[in-house]
Each structure stands twice: as C-alpha cells, then as structure tokens.
Design a protein that fits this description.
single chain, alpha/beta, Signal recognition particle alu RNA binding heterodimer, srp9/1, five-stranded mixed beta sheet, 5 strands
C-alpha cells in the first residue's frame, strides 16, 4: 500500500472528488492530532484526513499551530483546529462520503 501525501486540504479534496467512486466503503477519516515535543512541553496540533482509495491511502495533514500553555495563543490554535475539522468534514460529506473519526496508517 502506498501513502499519497497532500500538503494542502484543497488538493486532497480535489483528488477525492476525482476518485470518489474508488474510496473504500465511501469512508473518509478526519481527526485532530496532538503530538508532544521531545524537547519541550508544547503540543503540535494538526488535523489529519485519510481515505483508502484503491490500493492507496490518501492523507493530508494541516498544521494548526502549537499549544504552549499561553491562553490567547492556545485559543487561536484550537479555533483554527475546529475550523479545519469542520471544513474538511463538510467538504467530504458534500462528496457523499461517510466522514468518521480516526485515521488510516500504513504498517510495514
């Protein structure tokens, strides 16, 4: 299985639109992702969308910012995350795809 990475949500959605007939079970997974840093206490926040399309996994990760325990900064990052989640979910649903939580990952 090959992972096809996209850096821009609109590119991901354009490819899904072209290949929507081949999306496995018509499921797209959209989730928030928070990764801790090995060198500090910050969390990198992103939104990840994945779909199995034929033998491939299409994946886009949209970075929303860093939670650094500063109130106003964290509120802005979380607002970006919620907006990106909403946009990806509604865009995928408009393609008649079933939007579910979680993400697909390739395991070697």
């Amino acid at each position: 299985m090959t992972v096809v990475e996209f850096t821009n949500p609109s590119e991901f959605l354009a490819e899904l639109r072209k290949d929507s007939r081949h999306v496995d079970r018509r499921i797209v997974r959209v989730a928030e992702c928070r990764r801790s840093s090995a060198i500090s206490s910050v969390l990198l926040v992103s939104v990840v969308a994945t779909a199995r399309v034929g033998a491939d996994i299409y994946r886009v990760e949209s970075i929303c910012g860093v939670l650094c325990w500063i109130g106003e900064n964290d509120r802005l990052v979380l607002a970006r995350m919620h907006k990106q989640l909403k946009n990806l979910r509604s865009s995928c649903a408009s393609l008649s795809l079933d939007v579910r939580p979680g993400m697909f990952e390739e395991w070697a």
